[in-house]
Amino acid sequence: MSPTVLAYLIYLIGMLPIILIVGHTLHRHGRLFLLDLFPENAAIADRVNDLLLVGYYLVNVAVTLILMRACQSLTTYTAAIEFTITRAGLVTIFLGALHLVDVLTLMKIARRGRSV
How many Å apart are CA 5 and CA 70, to the nearest integer? Predict the structure, then answer.
């Protein structure tokens, strides 16, 4: 098996559990935050939470697949490991920043709703 194929396999196998575990955790804990944001209507909070989870999965899968492409063929196993670690780190940083933007947006909406 070539180092490039090995890197792709390790990257995908490694990213899948991270995507699923983080998505599940955000969905579970995000529900409480959204119930506070929509105190009169738990059904809306649950639907928004579900939509955020779907968006999370779509963006995460897209970023993971886009960043999977290597700039050139990897010729050594060391390069394959470096590729895998770098790409996983980039996905994690991007999604962490995206999550921060989501939380700040929801907090802004919550403040605006309480001041009206």
Answer: 10
CA dist 31 to 45, 49, 100, 107, Å? 7, 6, 16, 14
Fill in the amino acid letter for 97: A
pLDDT digits (tens, 9 = 90+) for 58-112: 998 888 888 887 666 788 889 888 888 988 898 889 888 988 998 888 888 877 7
Structure tokens belonging to residue 111: 């403040």
C-alpha closest to that of 62 among 71, 72, 54: 54
Unique residue bearing structure tokens 């897209």: 62
**Share above pLDDT 70 across residues of the chain, in percent, rounded to a whole number:** 94
